[in-house]
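Convert to structure. Protein one:
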Amino acid sequence: MVKVAILGACGRMGRRLGTLAHQDEHLQVVCAIEREGHEDRGKDYGRALGLADMGVKVGPTLTGHPQVIIDFTTPESTTAWVEQARDNGIALVIGTTGLGDRELDLIRSAAHQIPIVQAPNMSVGVNLLFRLVGQVAKSLGPEYDIEIVEAHHRFKKDAPSGTALGLLSSICDGIGCDARDVAVFGREGKSAERKKGQIGVHAVRVGDTVGEHTVYFGTLGETVTIGHSAHSRDTFVLGALRAARWLEGKAAGLYSMQDVLFGD
């Protein structure tokens, strides 16, 4: 059984992580971390989730000797916890979005000492999409225009989503180009005609949309559309828990959900 700590344990993602991890016979929640001043600090985590007592108090520090920390928080919080995980020899699953170069450099450095799974999206379906879009782009060739459209809830802080950027990266890997040379983030004005080779990336923020990603491959006469819709946050949670189980016994290194799912 893998012992896990959950960061942001009483937030939207944290609550589902705690609930589904508690139901997983291969996982044991031993630590629930929440920010100072949160109304659930000091409560039994099970009670905070509306479940039976877990014997785990919601608090500010690592307890219970976890083997894996699961992080769906903020870039600032992730930075601090990567350092703590590294210093304590604890594996990490990172699903935080909006990570910048500083945070990613820290994660890469820490991965020399501990195993880390870091992905912009933990969904099994989305990670299949990552694999497919590169293959499709390569097969269709340069005559097909490519556009990425993502939609999320009104509260999402970063745009475009980490998943949209991951799709862009996968497409560029497939066709052998640099995203910095071809990406166009939104279009406006009277001279916004598409240039050959561009890849458009567009963000929609509306209501309580969990997450939708669509990639269009179009040429004169036809359009190929590949997409994924998340109906609840559980799809991300289940992927993260799968990654936590997979990390048991792994050597230090930086892994992706592609490694977890396909053994790449």
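Protein two, convert as well:
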Amino acid sequence: MNLHTFLTDSDKAVKTQNILKSTGNATLLRLKKDGLLDKHQSKNKALLVLLSGHAVYEEDGRSVDLKAVHDFVEIPEKVTHQLVGKADSLLLLIQ
């Protein structure tokens, strides 16, 4: 099985697909170049892992440049944040 099979072609700047749900969630996220996942908060702590591309995670007072495969950022709960695509990117969100 390949993670790319979970995502179909789309013109959307951001596309998500839940790939695992039991006691936690694993979500595959595709972000196009210049795409923006608008400001939002997570109810729980999360881990965001870059699988390909280049994206920037931003929250108040902190910016994390995800540019190498397997770069990751820990996302605290109840903190407003956003994600910006610097290149077509594929990320894995684990909650």
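The mean pLDDT is 89. The chain has no helices and seven strands.
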